[in-house]
Amino acid sequence: MMGHRKWWEDAIIYQIYPRSFRDTDGDGIGDINGILEKLDYIESLGVNTVWINPMILSNQEDNGYDVISYTEVDPLFGSEADGERLIRALKDRGMRIIFDFPLNHTSDQHPWFQEALKGPKNPYRDYYVWTDGKDNRPYPNNWTAAFGGSAWSRELNGNQYYLHLFKQSMPDVNWDHPPLRKEMAEVLKYWIEKGIDGFRLDAFIYIDVDKDLTEHPEETSPGQDLNENGGNIPYYLSEMNESIKEAGEDVLLVGEATSVDAELAQWYTDPENNMVDKIITMQYFPEKEDEKDDAVPGDKQHAPLDLKAFKEVQKAFQAQEDKGGPVLFWTNHDMPRSLHKFASADSEFRDNAAKMMAALLYLQKGIPIIYNGEEIGMKNTAFDDPGNIPDAGVMDFYQEASKAGWDHKKSCVI
């Protein structure tokens, strides 16, 4: 007997980055009303699900992923009423809505962290990852943050350090602490009751931190590499899943797992493990690593696609026994525009390249995601001033590239 078919097995997802989608009040920033104005257009594309990047209250140092409040709409994008209107409008059209959920870290301006800074005895202290200094060293260990520098920062009025695998202003939360896990589940239930159908779990593979703070043998090493896919993640996520069932049964959880291959993706999405339903991974796109500059961080560079390796990766994901197939995409907010990265956006082959990529997206087994603008062949914009790019890692990359001898123009085409 066939099991219950989940709604997302037939999903065609349109990803909206609110900040740059449509501006209705003239402040140069996209807003919720802009999304509402374009719903006829979005529906005309044939999509049935909308994924919206963070529009909750944030310090906006990392485009919404540095959360100040998980349950408030950021006034930058509109009001609480605007958010509710958007959810209702999508429901009225029979469409589903997915929210982004940054669950690995918050802003340092989040009330939890502000309370945690009051001292070790504060009840919110253990909502974050703290440790003492070690052997008169400047930092507890040699882990580095994704956006540069150590992954540790010392509190101003104390002697402990807090962990931030991404950026100093984005402290990692402590998923080993039961009250924190309960708070996170309550956030999801809040939005499910508002009408949200699913969540993209941002950076979830880092939520189980190595409590031994194991040193890497090299002088420094990315803290993310040493803290991904930890053994407690199944427990944390299955507990969360059981909790949110009180609010809704058919809630889609898509895990962002940048380094996960097909085998590990199968483990994460196995229903028996009760973790996530689907995985989004950057491992779909193997690059020609030998064409990268060793003097510049490799994960910030963009080399040509290794076509033979790409074919093997696609075969591996297609071979999975996964209802609905894998998530399929060519680009998203963390990547250059697909025509810019994988084809030639300014050549005579632009239209044919776009059609070929669309055919591969739609003719495979899986759940396609179209990033807003991709449907019209949108290409990248080269910035004259990297300071105008609202991305937490851009200036670090620009400085490293300059040291390596890259000229200004090459560094700004990202």
CATH superfamily of the largest domain: Glycosidases
Following the backbone from N to C, one meets helices and strands in this order, namely: EHHEHEHEEEEHEEHEHEHEHHEHH
The number of distinct helices, counting runs of at least 4 residues, comes to 12
Shape: globular
Residue fraction in strands: 5-15%
What gap, in angstroms, lies between the N and C termini?
A: 50 Å
Task: Walk me through the structure.
- With 414 residues, the chain is of the alpha/beta class.
- The protein has 2 domains: 7-106 and 176-381, Glycosidases (TIM Barrel, Alpha-Beta Barrel); 382-413, no CATH class.
- It has 12 helices and 13 strands.
- It has helices spanning 32-37, 39-44, 80-92, 111-116, 178-194, 233-244, 262-269, 307-318, 338-342, 350-363, 394-403, 408-412; strands spanning 13-16, 49-52, 96-102, 130-132, 143-144, 152-154, 160-163, 198-202, 221-222, 252-256, 278-280, 327-328, 367-371.
- Strands 11-10-8-3-2-1-13-12 form an 8-stranded parallel sheet. Strands 4-7-6 form a 3-stranded antiparallel sheet, with no helix packed on it.
- Strand 10, helix 7 and strand 11 form a beta-alpha-beta unit.
- The longest helix has 17 residues, at 178-194.
- The radius of gyration is 21 Å and the shape is globular.
- The relative contact order is 0.10.
- The model has no long low-confidence stretch (mean pLDDT 90).
